[in-house]
Amino acid sequence: MALRKAGVGLDAGDGPAKNMLVTAASGGVGTFAVQLASLAGHHHVTAACGARNLDLVRGLGADETLDYGTPEGASLRGPSERKHDAVVHCAEGFPWSAFKPVLADKGGVVVDLTPRIASVAVAVLHWLCFSKKRLVPLIESPKKQDMDALMGLVVQGKIRAVVDSRYPLSSAHEGWAKSMSGHATGKIIVDMVEDAE
């Protein structure tokens, strides 16, 4: 959904090639965004994450990686100095001002998956001013057809779910705490049915 909002074609030859950035690329949503963009085969995918997950996101298909812990990574500037046509923003803590200098001059879009009031205000301002560089808050629920398409790609072995950890239902609060820490690598699973012993 976020990739579509960013104007990123997901099939080979579907639309022009894009220079893409995925923030929190090693998280539950970011791991899928990197794989889906890479799967199309014609986009250049830059993945931003912490140092410990750089190899993981490369293995998922990222062409270039950024370590948040470096000055380049913190400023979202990759080694190639490419400007981004599209950003799938899965992390908190980056204001619009961090994205504006790294977006393509001809017009770039940041799809914010963690929008706050400030994001919505910036988006409205961009719309009113016909700005070429835009912030688009994603305020939608996943659609069944999108989830079915993802599941089909998993079943076909074209993409994979990265699992950080599993918790029994009785420990769901621990899974929630891990999720809220912002340091999970991939998805956190809570088993809704506990095995009877």
From TrEMBL:
SUPFAM superfamilies: NAD(P)-binding Rossmann-fold domains. It comes from the Eukaryota. PANTHER family: OS09G0502500 PROTEIN, ZINC-TYPE ALCOHOL DEHYDROGENASE-LIKE PROTEIN C16A3.02C. It holds the Pfam family ADH_zinc_N_2. InterPro entries: Chloroplast_QOR, NAD(P)-bd_dom_sf. This is Enoyl reductase (ER) domain-containing protein. The lineage of its organism: Eukaryota, Viridiplantae, Streptophyta, Embryophyta, Tracheophyta.
